[in-house]
Specification:
Layout lengths: L6 H19 L5 H14 L1 H26 L12
Amino acid sequence: MAIKLNQETEERLLSSLQRYCMKNFDEEMGVLKARLLLDFCLREIGPSIYNKAVQDAQAVMQEKIAEVDTNCYETEFGYWTKK
């Protein structure tokens, strides 16, 4: 599954990549190079990050589902046991 970014996010990421290269490598990076690097990151690194985020979300949801059993349980036929 390809990761699609909206235009504003993509532009901000491209600008950030250019700024990062200038600050850390003292090298100017044009928009084309930044776009190619961003594309590589999205294709190569993006799926690993996406999959980890999905796994984390699933774990949280499974915890919440497990809580339903204890939080949403009412003893049946308990009228006569009340004093």
